[in-house]
């Protein structure tokens, strides 16, 4: 009698996604630099691959679900000048994210005042461009292809507000998988719900064959991005965003607008400090502890 479960993906089996899925830990600022969800997509599909790797090991079906050659994953070639321009745009946005995490000041027009590396005077930056970053699949794939570790192994496709990921990985480390490749495709839904990034697997296939429905049920009910909040830096990053969504053919990352109460509090404090001092009692400034605690709580 076989010792393997009838359904290797059933709840409680070694391949139950609730058991096998491991946290996807990414560096916060690195997530922005690499197009955030582009790299996250690769990490999640890689997680699915690891689960299937265990499945192959337990059922002895490595050959059935792997290929003797890698899939033809598209590689997007860009000129270095194009990559530099794209990276500069991403870096400018990343600086706004980082300055936001350092309580960056805003002027009366809602523009962020950031630190300039070459001057001591802060320079205002237009709020519309750096506060929103739009990355098309072509741009994400150009960044992926520029990375030697990902080039030819991962590809992102965005169509009609849907995010798709494709990977091809060698299975040399899986028993019986030497010289073979794991080729998989997956589709995801991406949204931000009340400030929480939500990524759900809606469909997946391996070697062109759909993943068993019983296995899909386990994954489709999970937020595959929930564990990124275990990393303090990434959690801090994500709290700065108002929206992270897939729209048409691009991923949109939009920062929260500056809190207007912050500006009014600062203005009030400035006016109060300029007011003449009539007596000893008025010279005692009011403690801002209450307002500070409120801002920290937010």
UniProtKB/TrEMBL annotation:
Q: Which residues lie in Acidic residues bias regions?
A: 106-119, 260-284
Tell me what organism the protein belongs to. Answer: Rhodopirellula baltica SH28
Keyword Transmembrane helix found: yes
| Keywords (A to Z) from UniProt | Membrane, Transmembrane, Transmembrane helix
Q: What is this protein called?
A: Uncharacterized protein
User: Which segments carry the region annotation Disordered?
Assistant: 1-21, 97-121, 254-298
Residues annotated as transmembrane? 32-58
Domain of life from the UniProt record: Bacteria
